[in-house]
Design goal:
Blueprint lengths: L37 H19 L4 E2 L2 E2 L1 E4 L4 E4 L2 E3 L4 H22 L2 H5 L2 H18 L2 H9 L4 H30 L1 H9 L6 H21 L2 H6 L1 H4 L1 H4 L6 E4 L1 H4 L21 H4 L20 H12 L7 E4 L1 H5 L8 H23 L19
Helix pairs in contact: 2-16, 4-6, 6-7, 6-8
The chain binds iron/sulfur cluster (2 copies).
One iron/sulfur cluster binds next to helix 13 and helix 14.
Length: 376
């Protein structure tokens, strides 16, 4: 296991604890190796799109209205340039219910694909902060070495550069979030005005910046493991037909080390441990689906590279369902998946209809009670 704790020989030990906490209850720091491969590249390209959208949306306007604004303080909400007021709250209410049903159905079919491919926490952590860390500190072994070595000029320069960049990025993210709440014009006004006029906003900004800095510098994968409610719900949402990142134990077990030119008997897993080394939550996917798996696909890429190197078929770790692996069936779009997907589209259609068909003005006329004023 690629962390600073070492690991147990007991193959069932993973059931008793999580990989990021040692037997004395202390945090085990993760040093995942840099993922390389097809899925990582896809996720990287997709993350560029997300980041451009996240940092760019506050600058987009439609008919002089921002594209999105969630001004909780003034109770004003703008979606796709259309203004919503508190009396439109039912649209948001139905939107929330739709969203929860959507999440539940989506997860039953597609597992935690959202966590790996679209969750802002994963995008910021793995595609921004982690990549800066790889760039400054080097790969996992160098990071471990740097952590354990005594302070010298090299360590000071690397730590100062990394933490400064982390803080700047956290500040930028906090500002961008603020512009989703108060709008970019208000934000720019605050930036250009004297500090004393907006000290309250500045303090809130620094609090948010510190929160992001704390999360991406120290808390990291713990968000997914212990803080995220969606992550905690996986145990009840996933079933044996859900698509998850899974190890094909039917093909892989009987694992043993690879020897050149041997006539290989037993399983295809060559027990190289690379799938564990790249895992940002430190788990061994060969133990089966686990709560800590955020579906990041790093282990798929790692194993595919190994399989290619030793001349075996790729896909020992892949997107599959537990039943699919047990029954040696390829991933197919089952009737249940089709039915759920239709329901998902219907829900999106309903919410879109409610958003589009809402009229700009809505008035309710109520007959006022007549007051009789008696004169003495
Ligand atoms: S098991 Fe694989 S997919 Fe799951 S978190 Fe670890 S590396 Fe990512
Ligand atoms: S990367 Fe593949 S071959 Fe290596 S230990 Fe993991 S499952 Fe086995």
């Amino acid at each position: 296991m690629n962390n600073d704790s070492g690991h147990s020989d007991n193959k069932d030990a993973f059931r008793d604890s999580i990989a990021t906490i040692d037997s004395s209850g202390k945090r085990v720091w993760m040093f995942p190796s840099m993922p390389k491969g097809k899925y990582y590249n896809y996720r990287k390209y997709l993350s560029y799109l997300y980041l451009v959208l996240f940092f760019g949306i506050p600058f987009i306007e439609i008919n002089d209205s921002p594209l999105f604004l969630i001004n909780i303080l003034e109770r004003k909400f703008v979606l796709f340039g259309v203004i919503f007021w508190p009396q439109d709250f039912f649209v948001f209410g139905i939107g929330m219910i739709t969203f929860i049903v959507f999440i539940a159905l989506f997860t039953v079919i597609y597992g935690r694909v959202f966590c790996g491919w679209a969750c802002p926490q994963t995008i910021f952590m793995e595609m921004l902060f982690r990549r800066i860390e790889f760039w400054i500190d080097g790969d996992a072994s160098h990071q471990k070495q740097l952590k354990n070595q005594a302070w010298n000029a090299d360590k000071v320069i690397k730590r100062v550069s990394k933490l400064s960049l982390f803080f700047l990025l956290s500040f930028l993210i906090a500002n961008t979030f603020l512009s989703y709440i108060i709008g970019k014009d208000e934000l720019f006004k605050m930036i250009t005005e004297p500090l004393s006029k907006n000290s309250g906003t500045l303090i809130s900004l620094l609090i948010f910046t510190s929160a992001f800095f704390f999360i991406y510098t120290w808390f990291r994968e713990q968000v997914c493991l212990i803080a995220c409610p969606y992550g905690r719900m996986q145990g009840v949402l996933l079933d044996k037909d859900s698509i998850v990142v899974a190890y094909d134990y039917v093909r892989g077990e009987g694992r043993h080390k690879f020897k050149k030119n041997e006539v290989r008997a037993g399983g295809d897993c060559i027990d190289c441990g690379l799938c564990v080394k790249v895992c940002p939550t430190g788990i061994d996917i060969r133990n089966g689906t686990q709560l800590e798996c955020v579906s990041c696909t790093a282990c798929i890429d790692a194993c595919d590279n190994i399989m290619e190197g030793v001349g075996m078929d790729k896909g020992l770790i892949r997107y599959a369902s537990e039943n699919g692996i047990k029954d040696k069936k390829k991933l197919t779009f089952t009737k249940r998946m089709k039915a759920y997907t239709i329901v998902l589209f219907l829900l999106i259609g309903l919410e879109t209809y409610l958003l589009v068909s809402r009229s700009d003005y809505d008035a309710t006329i109520i007959r006022a009670k007549r007051h009789v004023v008696s004169r003495a």
